[in-house]
Specification:
With 295 residues, the chain is α+β, with helices and mostly antiparallel strands. It has 7 helices and 11 strands. Strands 2-3-1-5-4-9-10-11 form an 8-stranded mixed sheet. The longest helix is centred in the last third of the chain and has 28 residues. It starts with a helix and ends with a helix. About 3% of the residues have low confidence.
Length: 295
């Protein structure tokens, strides 16, 4: 029989009080079991869609394809910015790594708006571009890949995911900025590495080291939450949770074809849009997102 809401809340409160004790991490095995129990109770209380109405972190990482792939990452970023603008959401830059041609090796932004995560979460996956390469003197057809990752924005004190201090490695560096401003002279940029999973988060845009660190922890919690939810889905489907997504042929969720014909196709829902410019230049991805809601 399912526990009633009040009893679940009381049990969560008792366990969270245990977490606040100074000796909580003395017994790591017990501490991890307590954290897992809290997460399970909160899932039971709130459902697995508890973050859907909240904010999101969107990251784009270029994959196979060199300059073309990094240019494709920039194309995807502009597409999402157009869509986000139409939704009336706000965006703040967390980190970017640009090449000399205006493409992105990787970029991460925070999206603040109602239903941001729930709306965009199924955009996560490998995206594929087929076109005549503007970077090839012979004008050959080229295939590029980029990984889109959307995770929920979790607060630093959110106990759905708790990260033991010994599971983190923290690196500091100088944050890049235009014109040699003072931001370049202090090590304010933060890179967090989650040792058990080797996940990393890089935040450079806040003014202080501590602000960047707190933001990085929030993002890392979101990535770990998304991984946990994905692992649950894989387990139900009988797939290995250790299998990683390669940013290459065969793993794409959506293809953007500009040559020899024009079409954008989602391979999960089979939704097709012939007006490629409307998608890539104007952010018309509503048809894909609506179809994804049933995934």
């Amino acid at each position: 029989m399912q526990k009633d809401t009040e009893n679940i809340k009381k049990e969560i409160a008792v366990l969270e009080e245990e977490m606040n004790q100074g000796n909580f991490w003395d017994d790591k095995v017990k501490a991890q079991a307590t954290i897992k129990k809290i997460a399970s109770l909160k899932d039971e209380l709130l459902g697995s869609e508890k973050y859907d109405k909240g904010n999101a972190i969107l990251s784009i990482l270029s994959g196979a394809g060199g300059d073309d792939a990094e240019d494709f990452s920039a194309m995807l970023f502009r597409m999402y910015m157009k869509y986000i603008e139409k939704k009336g959401w706000n965006v703040s830059l967390l980190h970017e790594n640009k090449n000399d041609l205006g493409g992105y090796r990787n970029i991460s932004v925070e999206i603040v708006g109602k239903d941001a995560y729930g709306t965009l979460k199924n955009e996560s996956g490998v995206h594929r571009l087929v076109r005549i390469s503007p970077f090839n003197a012979k004008s050959l057809r080229h295939t590029s890949f980029a990984l889109v990752e959307v995770v929920p924005k979790l607060q630093k004190d959110d106990t759905a995911i708790v990260i033991p201090p010994e599971d983190l490695r923290i690196e500091f560096s100088k944050a890049g900025g235009p014109g040699g401003q003072n931001v370049n002279k202090r090590e304010t940029a933060v890179r967090l590495i989650h040792i058990p999973t080797n996940m990393s988060v890089h935040v450079t845009t806040e003014r202080s080291q501590e602000q960047n660190r707190e933001k990085a922890i929030e993002i890392l919690k979101g990535k770990l939450f998304k991984k946990r939810e994905d692992d649950k889905l894989k387990e139900k489907a009988g797939l290995s949770s250790t299998k990683t997504t390669e940013i290459e042929w065969g793993s794409q969720i959506r293809s953007y074809v500009l040559h020899p014909y024009k079409m954008v196709k989602d391979h999960r829902t089979n939704v097709e849009v012939r007006d490629v410019d409307a998608v890539l230049l104007n952010g018309r991805i509503d048809e894909f997102i609506e179809a994804e809601r049933d995934l």
